[in-house]
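Section 5: illustrative case.
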């Protein structure tokens, strides 16, 4: 982890320490204790105090930058970290003079008085500490401690290879995304195979319960691969309406909220350490495994951010879809003025919904202009070039193919060889899919409230 990431974790731990106090006094934490709490440990499991001064310095810079854009003074939370030996034993070390420039020149009594006054301000700041975390994009402590970090919450990894059949993994991915559910191949009453079926269904003492968090992921070709994750909602079920599954299955667990995820988490999240296994179901142990803890915290943070975005509408100012009947990109062979306008509106709505879907993963799309022409969507992070069409009729598909090939050719110097896909309101016929596959063009389509693709999640 970087020092900035450790600084964020240190701030979260210090705020948790503050909010756990109900009396009018608060005790300090020594450097080794705080290092242990944020995961800076040696091979013996002990906190590594060396370097914590730099981390606290980074934390102080983060808070000062936030304070400059906020109307409230943020108390000096760094003063909670204390020396255990030397002249400042039981008090902050001399490094705090970055915030208190005269600290080194004070007598011990004067230092104690200043620290006690600051402690009172720290406690009086109360719930505003969570506002600090929110503004910095860090999970609020109360939610983390009371909800998802509680001893009652368990974290699980479920394999997307439901029936141990590589040929159907992509179809199972699609079923999980559309159905917002995790699937298990073993029957809920089958006590064989390590009791995985009953444990998944929550029929055993240590099985999955409502409120637990499931990560649908696996290790494939020595690399981690994610489908999505979410919080278990309700009891297990043995059938699901409106979702096509490629094979039979034992049971499913519905996830709400559910976040579909393609690609990998940030580099500081050690997912590869968590999916070393080949089992269909594995429970994580964040209480005794650092890699598990970091992954679980990342899942918690993403689910919390999802809850904040649930009522917010994403901004679509960077997507420009021309809806004028004079738009030649919608110039089909035979069409009326009304049909052109209707097609443009359908495409605009499709792109808007697709952008909102990607926003759940923190992904963004924009547009690329080629003189007077403009593609419908471009995802720079994945080099995905996308053209939307309002229908799966062949004439619409043919026009999209021509546009994509033209855009890719004209933008080759800037975009290189982009991944190409057509965004559609529903899945086209198999003949069209086969033809597009020969051109290395994929398809994205809407299924209920979800978007899926035939590229193993590259575009969704």
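Designed sequence:
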């Amino acid at each position: 982890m970087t020092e900035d990431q450790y600084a964020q974790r240190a701030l979260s731990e210090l705020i948790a320490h503050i909010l756990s106090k109900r009396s009018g006094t608060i005790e300090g934490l020594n450097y080794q204790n705080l290092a242990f709490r944020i995961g800076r440990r040696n091979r013996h499991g002990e906190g590594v105090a060396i370097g914590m001064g730099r981390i606290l310095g980074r934390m102080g810079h983060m808070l000062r930058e936030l304070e400059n854009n906020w109307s409230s003074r943020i108390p000096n939370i760094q003063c909670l970290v204390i020396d255990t030996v030397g002249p400042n034993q039981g008090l902050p070390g001399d490094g705090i003079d970055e915030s208190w420039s005269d600290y080194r020149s004070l007598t011990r009594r004067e230092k104690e008085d200043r620290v006690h006054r600051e402690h009172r301000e720290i406690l009086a700041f109360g719930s505003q500490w969570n506002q600090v975390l929110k503004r910095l994009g860090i999970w609020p402590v109360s939610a983390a401690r009371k909800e998802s970090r509680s001893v009652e919450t368990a974290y699980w990894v479920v394999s997307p290879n439901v029936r141990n059949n590589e040929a159907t993994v992509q179809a199972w991915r699609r079923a999980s995304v559309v159905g917002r559910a995790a699937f298990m191949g073993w029957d809920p009453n089958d006590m064989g195979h390590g009791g995985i079926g009953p444990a998944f269904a929550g029929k055993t003492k240590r099985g999955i319960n409502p409120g637990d968090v499931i990560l649908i992921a696996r290790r494939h070709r020595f690399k981690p691969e994610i489908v999505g994750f979410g919080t278990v909602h309700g009891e297990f079920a043995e059938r699901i309406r409106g979702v096509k599954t490629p094979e039979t299955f034992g049971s499913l667990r519905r996830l709400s909220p559910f976040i579909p995820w393609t690609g990998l988490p940030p580099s500081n999240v050690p997912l590869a350490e968590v999916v070393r296994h080949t089992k269909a179901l594995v429970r994580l142990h964040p209480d005794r495994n650092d890699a598990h803890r970091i992954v679980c915290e990342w899942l918690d943070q993403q689910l919390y951010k999802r809850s904040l975005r649930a009522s917010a509408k994403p901004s679509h100012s960077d997507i420009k879809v021309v809806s004028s009947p004079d738009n030649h990109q919608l110039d089909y062979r035979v069409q009326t003025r009304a049909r052109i306008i209707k097609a443009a509106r359908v495409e605009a709505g499709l792109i808007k919904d697709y952008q909102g879907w990607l926003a759940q993963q923190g992904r963004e799309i924009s547009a690329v202009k080629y003189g007077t022409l403009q593609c419908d969507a471009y995802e720079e992070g994945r080099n995905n070039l996308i053209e939307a069409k309002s229908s799966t009729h062949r004439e619409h598909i043919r026009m999209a193919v021509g546009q994509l090939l033209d855009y890719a050719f004209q933008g080759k110097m800037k975009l290189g060889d982009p991944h190409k896909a057509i965004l559609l309101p529903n899945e086209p016929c198999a003949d069209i899919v086969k033809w597009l596959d020969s051109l290395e063009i994929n398809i994205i389509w809407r299924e209920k409230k979800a978007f899926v693709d035939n590229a193993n999640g590259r575009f969704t």
